[in-house]
Predict the 3D structure of the following.
Amino acid sequence: MPKWPDIPKLDDYRNAPNPSFWKHFPHKSLPTHPETSVDHVKLDALVNNYRSVMTVHQFERCSKAIDYLKNGAPSHQISELPGCFVPNSTSAFIHGCHVTDSIATWVSEGYAAGPFTSPPIDNFRVNPLIAVVQPGKVRVVLNVSAPEDSSFNSNVDEFETESVKMASAKQFRQNLAECGKNSIMSKQDLKAAYKQLPSKIEDLRLQGFYWLGMYFGETRHVFGVKTSVCNYDILGETLKLFALLSCSIPKHLVLRQVDDVPSISPADSDWCEEFTDSYKQLCCDLNVGLAEDCPLNDKAFSCQTRGKVLGIMFDSSDMTWRVLEKKIDKCLKSIVHAQNAETCTLREWQKLHGRLNDISQICSFMKLFKQSVSECMIGIESNANPNTLIVISAEAKRDLAVWAGFLSCPSKWLPIGSAFSEPPIRCMEFVSDAAGLADTADFRSRPGAGNVGFSEDGMVIFANQFLWPETFIRFATDEDNIRYGDKTTTLEILGLQ
């Protein structure tokens, strides 16, 4: 059902309609100063209120968030791009009704200005519109990576952008294992996260588009722009920080991935409820929009024992997890296609590889059956054409058969193991993966494999450890008669406790 039923539907969205078409279409002029719904005055007061308990780095990032809200966040362009006009994609015309409805909503919400009969700014850039079909909806986005070699994205100075650290389902699984059975979890989701940040007035000419004979310009941060994620991250982390400062929940139990903020606490603690209430109240006070709690505990939910977090369903009542059905279906279809073909495109192989990565971060054992899939891309340049053909090896097909069996398992809910922990300090002997397992290794206690790292001052830090049966390490071999104890994929660090 369109949000703007009074806007006439057209038989053809490639040509300009009759002027009467625009009678019920919302209009907005270009802003003369950055506009945002977020109350940066109240945010500034919060910064001053909590300054004494913040680190220097936290204070500087909070101050930067306020600056971005008041003056617009930078696009970090290397050079001044000329104006351009790139035609819209075919998908936009096919889904013209959805595109029109989306643009009307953008204008109504203040996310875009227009319609204009001519370019509203000198050197105006018209970026192509794309309609991306997603489950239950059509998402309309600007392709800011066109034209090639002279686009918005290709002109971003990546040395000026901040690196963004994303939370993962693996981290949440670790937190769930730590908090234990019947632990309480929540997830808040910001609505139109990038649209909370205004663009600088001088950058508005870079964010234009053309539809049905009229010109428009996005006034907030654009989905798909390289700078949108890192610029929003500064605001998103600031919101999370202030909610944490008013709560007693340990900070590692609150994660964030762009606009998703999952939290968890043990069943006998009110930490999660306290943080959830604090975060919601903070967003309400600052006029930051949050998605309503979902009855299926999908997009957003509060203080539950089951919910979807970062693409995985978790249930603390029986300490299980599962991959979403639609993800399983997509993965199985890709596997079947690969098993029945000799080659596939780089784009298709990368999608499959990404889906396997997504699952194996929760089920680490399945990483053993992913290496051959990665090896099929050896020698492919990072900037290779997405249609480059990948030769599917026999080993990759065998490993994909294991994945197919795993994903087809009737028991969709799988147990969550114990929380990862460091190897005990009494570790007696370890060897590097390069050296392999010495025949003289001491097996008076249990062998295992793990990862090791070093702190900045040179101290050894063990990240995790796996314990293996002695026969597997000492005697078991693969199909090439190579002992697993000598394989890099199996043995990164061997430890005997």
Remarks:
- The CA atoms of residues 369 and 399 lie 5 Å apart.
- The chain has four domains: 19-37+69-164+195-229, 169-192+233-322, 323-415, 429-496.
- Residues 19-37+69-164+195-229 form a domain with the HIV Type 1 Reverse Transcriptase; Chain A, domain 1 fold (CATH 3.10.10.10).
